[in-house]
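Hi R.,

As promised on Friday, here is the backbone we talked about, encoded as structure tokens. Could you run it through your design pipeline when you get a chance and send me back a sequence?
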């Protein structure tokens, strides 16, 4: 691997020294009738039951995808999914979209607190939701007003920029989060 192969935007290291970078022009992604993924790598080896994951789901959502076997062994990393052949790119995009379903909170209607739990009633880009957070550890601060909320059922909700929400929503957040 050349010295810049393992660096991402800003020169930060991505992957490990043993990571294998996949060439989007030389791999193919397919699926069977049950929608299980297969990856045919550069050597023509077909990997069955492949699991995919975004390496930086929030900061680089359209780049850096990891491919692993069903046992969790890394097959390789893909820097630019956009460079895949159209059929492979669309199949990968569909699987990732389903896996990373994260509603974006567009408004906060109410936050109720009981002991260490908070029950949030919100509006999202997917409709109204109510969920419970357990402790402050359930709130990840992402910078620039962004927050990721992880509820007691391990669902994730994103506030892209709390500073841009309506005044009532900001008041709820100021009262219960900060």
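Update: got your reply. Pasting your designed sequence below so it's all in one thread:
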């Amino acid at each position: 691997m050349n010295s810049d192969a393992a660096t991402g935007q800003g020169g930060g290291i991505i992957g490990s020294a043993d990571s294998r970078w996949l060439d989007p022009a030389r791999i193919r992604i397919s699926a069977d009738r049950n929608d299980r993924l297969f990856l045919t790598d550069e050597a023509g080896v077909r990997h069955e039951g492949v699991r995919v994951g975004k390496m930086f789901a929030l900061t680089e959502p359209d780049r850096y995808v990891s491919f692993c076997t069903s046992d969790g062994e890394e097959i390789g990393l893909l820097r630019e999914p956009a460079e895949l052949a159209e059929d492979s790119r669309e199949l990968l995009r569909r699987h990732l979209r389903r896996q990373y379903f994260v509603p974006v909170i567009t408004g906060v209607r109410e936050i109720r607190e009981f002991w260490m739990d908070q029950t949030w009633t919100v509006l999202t880009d997917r409709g109204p939701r109510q969920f419970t957070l357990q402790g402050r550890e359930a709130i990840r601060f992402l910078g620039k007003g962004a927050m990721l909320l992880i509820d007691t059922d391990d669902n994730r909700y994103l506030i892209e920029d709390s500073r841009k929400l309506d005044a009532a929503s900001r008041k709820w957040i100021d009262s219960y989060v900060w």
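One thing I noticed while checking it: The chain is about 15% helix and 35% strand.

Thanks again,
M.
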